[in-house]
Amino acid sequence: MRLYEDEAKKIFASNGIPIPDQYGVIQSPEELNDLRVDYPVMLKAMVLVGGRGKAGGVKKANNLQEAKAQAEQMFGLRIKGYPVNKILLEKAVQEIGACYIGATMDPTHFNNVMIVSASGGVEIETVAKERPEAIYKVEVPGNEAELPKNTVEKLAGKLAKDLGVSASVSQKLADIISNVYALYQAADAKICEINPLILTPDGPVATDAKLVL
To answer: 57 and 74 in contact (C-beta within 8 Å)?
Structure first.
């Protein structure tokens, strides 16, 4: 079972993974009139498939008028056959970088796997196919609830180097890597993924959330 983004983000936030300010989910453009929103805002179609952005299911609005126009257009979409019936609204963040962090299981060996890449915002399968050297993957034998500290530091260090960020940002990345794996284990998840994790002037923020149980 895959959770909707807003559902997954609530769980992320309660497990120490930073997310943007959330304004709620709407089912019609008119509902925007009743929301207290700090613009600019992101409108995101709530469909359980990938590729929303390319299909017009993720838009930025700088004011109420833009948001209503974007919502009107988005509610008329079908993304990979799925109609858009709900739209998530969240605070738009200032991006200075992006990366990928995810935990899953290798079906070949049944080991847990932690994956990171400085190529955030792109489908990880595409990165793996076209630029495999841009992905760092560590298999974690056993079924420990937490990722070993040396593994966390190794992955965070590689991300920080590729992203060209400071030691303080590297520590924040390490915390998020650790928390993603811990949540993956605690939820007995199939996949726990952030793509992208956006680097902002105030620190990394999970602007997307995928949690498959």
So the answer is: yes
